[in-house]
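Subject: Interface between my chains keeps coming out wrong

I've been trying for a while to get a sensible model of this assembly. When I model each chain on its own everything looks fine, but I need the whole thing in one frame so I can look at the contacts. Pasting all components below, labels as-is. Any help appreciated, I'm running out of ideas.
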Amino acid sequence: MQTQAYLDLENQYGAHNYKPLDVVLTRGEGVWVWDVDGRKYLDCLAAYSAVNQGHCHPKIMAAMQAQARHLTLTSRAFRNDQLGPFYKEICELTRSHKVLPMNSGAEAVETVIKTVRKWGYQVKGIPADQAEIIVCANNFHGRTITIVGFSTDPTAHIGFGPFTPGFKVVPFGDADALEAAITPNTAGFLVEPIQGEAGVIIPPDGYLKAVRAICDRHNVVLILDEIQTGLGRTGRLLAEEHEAIEADLTLVGKALSGGFYPVSAVLSNNEVMDVLQPGEHGSTFGGNPLACAIARTAMRVLKEEKMIENASEMGDYFLAGLRQIQSPHIREVRGRGLMIAMELVPEAGGARQFCHRLAGKGMLCKETHENTIRFAPPLVITKADVAWALEQIDAVMRD
Ligand SMILES: *Cc1c(COP(=O)(O)O)cnc(C)c1O
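Reply #2:
Try treating it as a single job with all components included. I did that and got this:
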């Protein structure tokens, strides 16, 4: 079958909740993917940072195949021999006390909301059903009803109400606004260290440090959603390290499996996680042996193969190269590690047409909102690949 036949099937039978580029992929290896017509592309999205380790990483694949032959699912009604080792390894890697495994990122966010509310009642002494969680404008935390209810993006929430109460929105990057919004009923503050879906929005220097101090001062749990920024993407294991802080609760997902399987986790200190009692939360697939075996290897190769250091070096090189490009279409280039965005001027006519032209040159990129192109390739990208990418971008932007 050729490209058009696949598009026709999707259009006829699928829900139209996505507007993908019309490229039908069939194979991937490292930073490269191939479509059904045999064309090769550099993947500059890496499945929204779920494929940080590169497509079809051989060691993760081997771990998946080996585990699939042994045992895939027990449910948490019984124990399995991958769960304990996974717990220990993820806690040691991220300097956490406790972990709660789930599947998708949105489930990790839902889990953290439940946990922080319970902590608010049980430990902080907030009156029943009064707990508030503060979130940021332009956040992206997933697609469940509760989560879209506190999204400020109209496309995400219009038509889907009524929503879960108990959330307050403050501007991102404004620590004073956070402090002003805190009341005695505030249990937690949920924030992305860098807002990914909003267009790689980097807060002012010192923001996370100030947020950490404010949360300490008011006994508010600081929750960092590192589902996109975590596991090496920004050139550090966790983006919180750029400001030398530690969150009370950290969410990871996406690259936790290197793209093989949905695996997410809530990482916590003892005080917060210990409020959960048997029966109060769970997931049939959460913590299954296949997920744990995959995640253990996905974490191991990040470290062993120095992908985090590479993200830092290649990110600097990529960003410096983009800043050299002279084009009237470019308003700003920004990024940290390999989480990079190029914002175009509104007169450029929208980022999507540039994504189409980049695809024509063998680069797959995705626009975020109208005018921003994101560059976030797998962390295994080489200098030669970045140099090649810069040539393609330069040609398209000068055109
Ligand atoms: C992708 C993402 C999520 C949601 O993850 P899913 O696995 O798609 O549910 C949550 N938060 C952030 C910051 C994300 O980038």
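Reply #3:
Confirming on my end. Residues 48, 104-106, 109, 140-142, 192, 196-197, 225, 227-228, 253 surround pyridoxal-5'-phosphate (CB under 6 Å).
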